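Following up on my earlier thread - several people asked me to post the actual chain instead of describing it. Fair enough. Here it is, all 217 residues.
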Amino acid sequence: MKNEELQAIASQLKNPTGEKGIEMGNMMNETNINMTKHSIQNLNISQGNKILELGHGNAGHVEFLFEQAESLKYYGLEMSELMFKEARQTNRNFVSQKQAFFSLYEGNIIPFEDESFDKIFTVNTIYFWQKPEELLSEIYRVLNSNGNFCLTFAEEDFMKTLPFTQFGFELYSTEKAQKLIEKTAFKIVYTETQTEKVKSKTGELVDRAFTTIVLEK
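Reply from S.P.:
Thanks for posting it. Predicted structure:
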């Protein structure tokens, strides 16, 4: 693939737009669903929790989240206007029942009050964080004192094998992510790396290592 094509893929992964963006949203949901479900399960969601997700894509996984406990409220923040619209459409029943709430944001400031959420999670967004330390501090601020935050990402060694990640991606190993977290007030309570089989862009199955880090105040 030419550099322009690779740059276009990288740009769509960061901020899906147009018809290609809808395809990208569907593809991301499909390839990330295992990582997303794993993150949701690691939150130990209980009845009545308020949950925030950063960078939800088309939010095809929200139904699974609502299966975890009763009386949940889900809040999704997204930088892509297209994914915001797709997520609202996909989850229109939850939206109309005032169980799911979607908003756009610019990626740095979380537009909620201190200690608003019991659980927060994000999957495969850390590569695009413009100010990682500041965003982690924002997540810390809006998390309840007994809440937890689940950060999930594909390992640097795997991501380096994808040709488009040279354009605008900041890659993370477990160690690098832990060093970033150490600059904040968060405490790491659990770290796990596992490998899964995923379909590559060319349709073959490849091994992808991903890490989940669970943090608390």
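The chain is about 35% helix and 30% strand. That should answer part of your original question.
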